[in-house]
UniProtKB/TrEMBL annotation:
Residues 1-32 are annotated as: Disordered. GTP binds at residues 148-155, 229-233, 293-296. It is a peripheral membrane protein. It is found in: Cell membrane; Cytoplasm. PANTHER family: SIGNAL RECOGNITION PARTICLE RECEPTOR SUBUNIT ALPHA (PTHR43134). It comes from Rugamonas rubra. SUPFAM superfamilies: Domain of the SRP/SRP receptor G-proteins (SSF47364), P-loop containing nucleoside triphosphate hydrolases (SSF52540). It catalyses: GTP + H2O = GDP + phosphate + H(+). It comes from the Bacteria. Keywords: Cell membrane, Cytoplasm, GTP-binding, Hydrolase, Membrane, Nucleotide-binding, Receptor. This is Signal recognition particle receptor FtsY. The gene is ftsY.
């Protein structure tokens, strides 16, 4: 089992958990201080293999450039084209090319394998600041507001995160605040049933009111984590983005300092549009983290480099498929190894 989260020792003044029904039973008070599970080598190797398969398209396009190549302008031009095709964007591509040329000159690199190794190092250096552990136990309850455009895999991601949190000794409550999309409430209810987690919802409720009720319910029941599903918005729908801001304000009225995490789920296949989404949602909500989904075959992966250069919001998790174990913490070294082979 992967060490999915970092845990912080519970504060001494944490409120005791109130009695709850079996489906809502909170974790013991010392759950946040429990030791993390140790990664199993076989499980990690399986994950890395699947990640490599998911990024194989970009990996093939980049790796082939260094096979018997001469270190000349033609190589740099081909590398520029490959990076742009991988969705790295103009800014990150130019940064990587300039840094690579400088390193080749300073280190007097003469063969293609050494240049490829230098590029891997530069990519790791670029992406490492995005790598940050998701820390549990900082607040009681910890409130998470989760956004994303329709189709990004937001509700499915919430279900997976809830399962992983339960495996780390956390009690979870979900809020069906996505009243904008048809069947979103029902989809979240299904995940709640799978994980034996309570879902706060209203048939035609105001998303801000649903979110407020969920926070109050979690406080009363001693729940560790509240995950609020908010409606998928396109950055161009400004009136809908304003509603998301309202939801965030109302959550803060329900619990001072909340939401403690404001996450955006983005589809790894959407290329530079993903960067546009990060900018828009960050401007509106001040994002604390990202979840990149669907890195499973057609995704190019380079958009993480673009995010790192233009809007370096931490990437907490990446996903490569539909299974629970297909969502794992972002690791820059593993990602670059999969991207460059």
């Amino acid at each position: 089992m992967f060490s999915f989260f970092k845990k912080k020792t519970a504060t001494p003044d944490a409120a005791p958990a109130a009695p709850a029904t079996p489906a809502e039973q909170p974790a013991p008070r010392d759950a946040a201080a429990a030791p993390l599970a140790i990664e199993e080598p076989a499980a990690k190797q399986s994950w890395i293999s699947r990640l490599k398969a998911g990024l194989s398209k970009t990996s093939a396009n980049l790796s082939v450039l260094f096979v018997g190549a001469k270190i000349d302008d033609d190589l740099y031009e081909e590398l520029e084209a490959a990076l742009l095709m991988s969705d790295a964007g103009i800014d990150a591509t130019q940064y990587l090319l300039d840094a690579l040329k400088k390193r080749v000159k300073e280190d007097k690199l003469l063969d293609a394998a050494a240049v490829k190794a230098a590029l891997k190092t530069l990519l790791i250096e670029l992406l490492t600041p995005l790598q940050r552990p998701f820390e549990l136990g900082r607040h009681q309850p910890m409130v998470m507001m989760i956004s994303g455009v329709n189709g990004a895999g937001k509700t499915t991601t919430i279900g997976k995160l809830a399962k992983h949190m339960q495996a780390n000794g956390q009690s979870v409550l979900l809020a069906a605040g996505d009243t904008f999309r048809a069947a979103a409430r029902e989809q979240l209810m299904v995940w709640g049933q799978r994980n034996n987690v309570t879902v706060i919802s209203q048939e035609s409720g105001d998303p801000a009111a649903v979110s407020f009720d969920a926070v109050q319910s979690a406080k009363a029941r001693g729940i560790n984590v509240v995950m609020i599903d908010t409606a998928g918005r396109l950055p161009t729908q400004l009136h809908l983005m304003e509603e998301l801001k309202k939801v965030k304000r109302v959550i803060g009225k329900g619990l001072e300092g909340a939401p403690h995490e404001t996450l955006l789920v983005i589809d790894g296949n959407t290329g530079q549009n993903a960067l546009t989404q990060v900018k828009a949602f960050d401007d509106a909500l001040q994002l604390t983290g990202l979840v990149i989904t669907k890195l499973d075959g057609t995704a190019k992966g380079g958009v993480l480099a673009a995010i790192a250069r233009v809007r370096p919001v931490p990437v907490y998790f990446i996903g490569i498929g539909e299974k629970i174990e297909d969502l794992q913490p972002f690791n820059a070294v593993d990602f670059v190894d999969a991207l460059l082979g």
